[in-house]
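Board notes (copied after class):
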Amino acid sequence: MSFTIELLPAFADNYIFLVSDRDLGLAMVVDPGDGDVVLRALKERELYLALILNTHHHSDHIGGNDKLQLEFGAPIIGPAKEKGFIPGISRAVSHGDTLTFSALRGEVLATHGHTDGHVSYYFPQIKALFCGDALFSLGCGRLYEGNTTEMWESLKLLRALPDDTNIYCAHEKSADNAKFALAIDKNNEALKLRAAEIDALRKQGKPTIPVTMGVEKLCNPFLRTDQPDLRRALAKAGVAAEDADAAAVFGMLRSAKDHFGQQRI
């Protein structure tokens, strides 16, 4: 069994993910915001598109659905709670559902918060998590439709995946996220190492993902709001009481991130 996962850059900082079974000449695409980008990649690699996955309904994730479906007739899988907003959707899925591509079996995880029905797709055979805008390296998505409790529960669900899970998030935001993370978690040595790695990769024009869940669990403040060392640091800085509810602390961090620089996700 041989599969490849490629990052196809789109727009300002999006990644579209092309998963291919080269032996069979088949491909699956995740969050194809730009259909032309995907069509070019498929043609260059002589692949036939067999499946389209959407994590949520935002246009930079679904914009290429119609063009790709018209060209290949590929079924589109997306979140049930957002099926009315996803063009061409063939199957609406919810937490616990499964899907297949070639010999791969994927699991649907409810990761609500960024949008009301956001889902992520986990493929344990290739140790891959496609999490859209729920989780980023050293960050997480803005709360456009959900609330802090929903998002915190979503992040805990993702955090429970094996440490060797490769995180494929849909935006290149690691450098900006590192600035915020370092500002509020100054003494985290693992974070300092990851931030240096991110800086080196970006200077070379390389993507900062995938990154493993094990690394993110050590470095990403949004995954650590229930961890004693971060809680002590936040309490010392006057951000949140050390005994505050983890979801509330997460909400404070997310609000602080919203006002840190000009980044909007």
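Comment from the instructor: The radius of gyration is 18 Å. The chain has a mean pLDDT of 95.
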